Amino acid sequence: MTGGEWYWHVHHAVLVEQLTAPAQDEIETRLRLFKRVKDQGAVFAAQKARDEAVASAEKAYGEAVAPARKARDEAVASAWKAYHEAVAPARKAYDEAVAPARKAYDEAMALARKARDKAVAPARKAYDEAMALARKAYDEAMALARKAYDEAMALARKAYDEAVVVREAHDEAHEKECPDCPWDGRTIFPEKESK
C-alpha cells in the first residue's frame, strides 16, 4: 500500500482520502487560524468609516480633476482640427501627384497576375493531384485510428464500470462508519434548502 492511511472528510468536498501529513497537524492548523472576530461592532464601524472615506475621496478627486480634463479634451480637439486643416492641401497634392503612378502600377500588376496564373496552372494541377492522394491516405489512417479509439473506449468503459463498483463499496463503508454524516455525494457541507 502506498500513501498514508485513509480518512473520511479530510477536505469538505472529498469523501475519503489518504493522508500525506499527520491528521493532527492539519486539524490544529485549521482550528488555530480559523477564529471569529470578538469585537464585531468595531470591525463593522471601521469598515463603514473606510468605505465613507473612500467614497468622499473619490468624489473630491473627480471634482478636482474635472476642469483639467475638460480643458485637456478641448485642447486636444482643437489641435486635431488644426492638424487636419493644415495637412489637407498636402494630402490633396500628394494624391494628385501619385495618381498616374498608381494607375500604371495597377495596369502592370494586372498583366503580371495574368502571366503568373498562366505559369502556375501546371503546378496547381500537380498540387490538386497530390492533395487527392494525401486525402486518401489521411482517410485510411483515420479509419485505423477510429478503430483503435473505439477499442480503447471499450476498455475505458469497462474500467469505469469497475470504478463505479469500488465507489459503491466506499459509500457502503462510509454509511456504516459515519451514520449521522451530512455527506451528499459532493461535500460534507450541503447547501441548506431555501425557505
Task: Please characterize this protein's 3D structure.
- The chain folds into two domains: 1-35, no CATH class; 36-168, no CATH class.
- A hairpin with a 2-residue loop joins strand 1 (6-11) and strand 2 (14-18).
- It has two helices and two strands.
- Helices cover 76% and strands 6% of the residues.
Helix content percent band: over 70%
Evaluate the radius of gyration. Answer: 38 Å
Helical run tally: 2
Main beta sheet strand tally, sense and closure: 2 strands, antiparallel
Topology overview:
Blueprint: E1 6-11, E2 14-18, H1 23-33, H2 40-177
Antiparallel strand pairs: 1-2
Would you summarize the structure shown here?
This protein has 195 residues and is mainly α.
Provide tags for this entry.
mainly alpha, 2 strands, 2 helices, 195 residues, two-stranded antiparallel sheet, 6% strand, flat
